[in-house]
Amino acid sequence: MGKEGRRPLSTAALRSLLGLVQRVKGRKKVPPEKALENAGARSATMRTTMDTWVLWLLLLPSLVQYPQPVGNGLDEVTRLRMEVRAKLQEEEKIHLQREVEQLVLLKQGVLAWGDLLSSARQHWQLWALAGLLLLLLALWYMWRKGSLRTEEQGEAHDGVNEEEVENVHAHEEDFGNEDEGDNEMEVEEDDKFRDRADNFGRIIMERVQWPVQDLQGGCMWTRTLMEHFAIYFRRVLSNSFYPVLQGAIGVGSAFEGWSPREQDVVYQVLIPMTPPRGHSFHLELGTAWQRRLRNFHIRVQQECTCTSEQQGEHMLCFLHHPEEELRRHQDPSLLHTLCTGSYLDVEKTARWFYQLVRAIWPALLESHSWHLVLLPPRRSCQFKVTNGRESYRIEILFGLRQGNSDVFVSSQPRQAHTSSTIWPESYAVAEMKFFRYIARQAPPDSLHLKCLQFFTRLQLGLGFSTYTIKTIVMHLLSILPASQWRRRHFVSRLMDISESLRTCVERRRLNHFIVGNQRLPEGIRLPPEVLMARSRNLFHDLVMDPVAHSQAMNQYMDLQHWFKRILRNEQPLSTAALRSLLGLVQRVKGRKKVPPEKALENAGARSATMRTI
Prior knowledge:
By secondary structure, the protein is α+β, with helices and mostly antiparallel strands. It has helices at 11-25, 32-65, 72-122, 124-151, 162-176, 183-207, 215-237, 252-256, 288-293, 306-310, 323-329, 346-360, 428-441, 448-458, 466-479, 490-507, 528-531, 540-544, 546-567, 575-589, 596-609, and strands at residues 244-245, 249-251, 266-274, 279-285, 295-302, 339-340, 343-344, 371-374, 381-386, 391-401, 408-410, 423-426. β9 (381-386) and β10 form a beta hairpin.
């Protein structure tokens, strides 16, 4: 068959073939209406195709023998196939690129979270340390806030300038509402509050006219004088049967560093005594009442000295030699000189010491430039020495030490009327040592002695004893740190003293500071019976007497009135007003009449205390 007889594939056949390829690959969906059109086209194409296949079978031998070069029709088919393949490849490439981009993004996210978790694991210790520091900071802030509130707690608005108090309380409220995390603001506000409190304490201190006193110089002069006396005491009493006098110990307010008196300060010293040769001292407690008050008798007992006599001391034994021989050859026994019965007499001892001081004074170096004035003795030996410029008043007390402790039985009375054979237990040495301990612990600008001096001078003539105020201050000193007695705490500490006094009067109880106190500093030594004893109530009389309790409450109100007047910076009362107030106080007390001259002296002391700037 010739070339002319071969028919090329029609366009319809090619299109049908292309559609078949698309359906097989499943890459492209055809719309329904397009599908119907394609179906009709395929039906026509099928008929044509059948004819074409017959024709191909007839022409196959000739095609094998004579291959026909690719013409324009075949080029178009190839081009369409290539376009279809390129399109499919392009779609596949786009699909693959999208998947790659998604995988890259997912991988980057996973890596980011992995890095973050790894960093957190590496730095967990730093986070833990930061949390611990924040916790400690919060705890310190809470403690600091509570501490400041405790220091400034009290009813300050009752006794100070209204504007200053409002400022202080406003600052306390602001301070209480501060943010715990704002440390810089807290420090700044704390400094402002301290400056304000310090300035307020300075103003209150300037309102009081403090006495000009050189207590340290007076104490040193007194010690020196007593050392000179001790030299002659040993010489005069070396071969006698009077008590052996030991070195003097400074006691009382002056040796504690303060004084309730503006002038005429009393320097007290306690001279321990030991029994002379051939004698011994024995402490005895009397009735139940005396045991409760710890009032002692000193029983003097003669001891055998026959062994000492054989050793060549040239002393006759009081127990084994006839009285006639003793009277001719030996001084009398202590029982016949300073005793009443078998007990050592306080008043006889004071008179004996009075004579001893008067006899020794001319031999002292001080007698050349100082003038001695002896005061009438009762239970102590008191005298004044002056040189025209200076004057010192000295009181000598006598006592027996209990064992190796700081507790004595002394001649100092506790009540107005004390029997001459009663020797009350004295804690003056222990209290002096306590104030020395506080002085070593306190900062140089501590005002604890100013607080004590303020109230002891304020209560003159109002019924409360100086020892009551001193006991309250000692209790506060043992509770509050020494650093909280500076000038910025001055008003707060004064209010603490006033509030403590009110509470003790209301409850009718004020515990003795020494008796039964097992928390004293290490250097203060107490005998076991004092250390383990039940604390003594200094307000026992208020428990037993309701009238006395009512009077004590009225006396506290009077003291509180004077206290507020000083803090409010009011003008001092006139002399007439002082007389009227003192008369009212005496009527309320109804127990003890104060002489007019003494009342005026006390009133003048309070008036001086209340002098303002």
